[in-house]
Amino acid sequence: MVLLDGVHLVADALAAGIPIRSAAVAIEDAVGSVNEALRVLLGRLNDASVDLVDAPAPVMAALSPVPSPSAIVALAERPRHAIDEVFAGPAPLVVIAVGVQDPGNLGAIIRVAEAGGATGVVATGASAGPFGWKALRGSMGSALRLPVLDDVSPEQAIAEARRRGCRVLATSPRGGTPVFDAVLAGPLAVLIGGEGQGLPGALLDLADARVTIPMQAPVESLNAAVTAALIVYEARRQRAASPNREPGTTS
Length: 251
Known about the structure:
The protein has helices at 7-15, 27-30, 36-47, 57-63, 83-86, 103-115, 133-139, 154-163, 201-206, 224-241; strands at 2-5, 20-26, 51-55, 72-76, 93-98, 120-124, 148-149, 167-171, 177-178, 188-193, 209-212. With 251 residues, the protein is of the alpha/beta class. The chain has 2 domains: 2-76, CATH 3.30.1330.30; 83-241, Alpha/beta knot (3-Layer(aba) Sandwich). The chain has a 7-stranded parallel beta sheet, sandwiched between helices. The protein is elongated. It starts with a strand and ends in a 10-residue tail after the last helix. 44% of the residues are buried.
């Protein structure tokens, strides 16, 4: 089960077809609500036969994990996806997050992956859980729609990528091909390292190539989600410009 905190996430789960088992609603917000979004959501939850409970402020404060309690908190089934869904289509674009321990960062990676047209995300190594409440809030609902896996090792993810014809790129703060010179069209899996330590050397060695984001000194590294955003959107740009471009070509 996953905890959905707030109107936005609960509505996104309903839209994604994720079964919601129960929901608690703040009494003062549920009765004669002037919040149109909440009023509409309550109607949809009723139509879906979700068990709704009116909760007083102290109960909502205990249920909601944020400092200012949300108007609604729900329990829903955890999204489940097969690895074939992550690597879907003739030219999959998969982000493999390795050791991204901050759940907000991981959620942001999932959000930018969906926004940039990636086919899926693998959260592996010592990464935070992608379906914890902080990661779900960070993804703003993207983790409820985009195929996300968190039950394979980095080595298994790389092996699966290769089995499906993907090139594997590893991000490195220095020494790699500048991202704007790298070929990112075609089937691709991108390894994104965690905060501080980046990718371990053994995984860098498993990659087909390394890619580096140019940075002005004295900056030495970027946030993992920012790194993912730059690479995913450069891949999107290249694919839109050359949809038939074969991986490994330079023009």
